[in-house]
Specification:
Blueprint lengths: L1 H20 L7 H19 L1 H4 L4 H10 L6 H13 L3 H13 L6 H15 L1 H10 L7 H13 L3 H13 L6 H13 L6 H10 L6 H13 L3 H14 L4 H13 L3 H13 L6 H13 L3 H14 L5 H14 L2 H14 L5 H13 L3 H13 L6 H13 L3 H15 L10 H13 L3 H13 L5 H14 L6 H7 L6 H10 L2
């Protein structure tokens, strides 16, 4: 996919370059196509660099130039833009560093992007240091704004406020984006009461609030449970803006979260009556929120509209519909939509089958769940961690520890030497050890610990569970203390008391 995106971008940038060249030395179509192919190949190498080798971006670019190719500043920026979209921030930063060392002139926009990339790859201190080292001419509205965005992203309130005041003195606070960043920061640090004053300041300075500003303000009033002020904001928006489905969706979400389901449904109906759905996300929002309000009729209406406006219904749309039907407890509807998707999908997405599996298991429909799981094997679809978690937790609830452990092992095999914060969850770990203690199953507990060690999840908490199992079983393990030291486990006072029993 990266290769195709790069090709599309490079076609535009190369076409511009070629039109300039034609004024002095007309380029043939073959020359233009050759340049496009060269640049697309180069972009693909840069985009896949992280996953393949330890080679630096500079090495690839130096080699490219050494082999007689040329690369312009605009092409470098184009590469960096695409790499940022794919979250390849390190490679994008290295592109700017190479451009700087290659004596390409860095403008204010380039400096701003570099500040953002430094914060993402090397931390906020590195971004701050780069900004401070800029010459006075480089400290502009764009670079100040980039650093403020970094502070807001990292929730550095004091530094953000200090920089904001400095920007005011320099007359750099002239647009909506700066205020939106500050408002987002206040929401992030739990100070929603600050937002109304900021919006008032914007009005006094004739700075027009955008949709994001209004959403933040609505959310701030919702956090303060000031629904009257929130509704006043919405009325003002309705007077000045038509067909803003995002605002209605945001307001309905607030009502749903507050448990005001009648108001949520009334707001969704207003949104639905606009009937100008050029964005599938509007219909996704309707399906999701109608599902959360237990409004089956609303869910089905939005789904039918989605298929009318977007006949080529994709996996994501089906996933959102299945999740809504699952919330409604509509198993028949769930099965119908799932079969419809299975019969027409070009790419099988295991997330959709997981929704159905979860619904089956929650209703103790074991035979149906097992049948669906076997169908994945027939289709040669690889179950993911979520699939393993569903079956593991189901068998834990049924106290079927051997079957639960089987699915734990399947999940562990997918992770290898990596780790996740959610697999297995702390609740699942506790459930396993409750069963081990209940059955005085030391061997099972030891097998579990070996699995946790494979994914770097063997910690003091797991060892405490293991020690409790040994104590319950009335068994000792003389080497336990040594094992814990070898595994780098810090032995707490409480753990030491347990060890005296297990490791005399």
């Amino acid at each position: 996919m990266a290769k195709n995106v790069g090709r599309l971008f490079l076609f535009r940038s190369t076409a511009v370059t070629s039109s300039r060249q034609l004024s002095t030395a007309p380029a043939t179509a073959a020359t233009v196509i050759k340049k496009m192919n060269e640049n697309s190949s180069l972009f693909y190498r840069l985009a896949t660099l992280k996953a393949t080798t330890n080679t630096e971006v500079s090495e690839i670019l130096d080699e490219y130039v050494k082999n007689g190719h040329t690369i312009s500043r605009f092409e470098i920026i184009g590469f960096a833009t695409q790499l940022r979209k794919f979250k390849h921030y390190d490679q994008a930063l290295q592109l700017y560093e190479w451009m700087d060392k290659s004596k390409n002139r860095m403008n204010n926009a380039d400096h701003a992007v570099r500040i953002d990339l430094l914060a993402k790859t090397k931390g906020i201190d590195s971004a701050e240091s780069y900004f401070n080292k800029l010459e006075k001419s480089g400290k502009t509205k764009k670079t100040y704004g980039a650093l403020l965005n970094c502070y807001c992203g990292e929730a550095k309130l004091d530094k953000a406020l200090e920089l904001f005041q400095e920007m005011k003195k320099l007359n750099f606070v002239t647009g909506t984006l700066t205020y939106n960043n500050l408002m987002s920061l206040y929401m992030k640090v739990g100070q929603p009461e600050k937002l109304p004053a900021i919006v008032k300041e914007m009005e006094e300075k004739n700075i027009t609030a955008d949709g994001f500003t209004h959403s933040l303000l609505i959310n701030s009033y919702a956090a303060l449970k000031d629904f009257e002020s929130m509704e006043a904001v919405m009325k003002k928006i309705e007077q000045n803006t038509k067909d803003d489905w995002f605002m209605y969706g945001n307001l309905a979400t607030v009502y749903v979260n507050a448990g005001l389901l009648d108001k949520a449904n009334a707001t969704l109906l207003k949104m639905e009556k606009q009937k100008h759905f050029s964005d599938p996300e509007a219909l996704h929002t309707l399906i999701n929120l109608y599902g959360r309000t237990s409004n089956a009729a609303g869910v089905n209406r939005a789904w039918e509209n989605l298929k009318v406006f977007f006949p080529k219904t994709g996996n994501r749309s089906y996933l959102i519909m299945l999740l809504a039907l699952s919330k409604l407890g509509d198993v028949n509807g769930l099965e119908k939509i799932f079969k419809e998707w299975e019969s027409s999908c070009s790419t099988y997405d295991v997330r959709l089958s997981n929704v159905v599996l979860e619904s089956y298991l929650n209703r103790n429909m074991v035979r149906e769940a097992e049948s669906l799981y076997k169908s994945l094997e027939t289709r040669e679809v690889e179950p993911n961690l979520k699939t393993c978690t569903l079956f593991m937790n189901f068998h834990l609830k049924k106290k079927q520890v051997d079957l639960a452990f089987e699915f734990l092992e399947r999940g562990v095999s997918k992770l290898s030497q990596t780790t996740t914060k959610w697999f297995p969850s702390q609740e699942s770990v506790s459930a396993f050890f409750e069963l081990f203690e209940e059955g005085k199953d030391v061997d099972g507990a030891e097998k579990f610990c070996k699995s946790m060690k494979k994914i770097n999840r063997l910690d003091g908490k797991v060892y405490d569970f293991l020690l409790h199992t040994y104590i319950t079983a009335g068994k000792v393990e003389p080497q336990m203390r040594q094992r814990m030291k070898e595994d780098g486990i810090e032995i707490s006072t409480e753990t030491e008391k347990l060890l005296h029993t297990v490791c005399p």
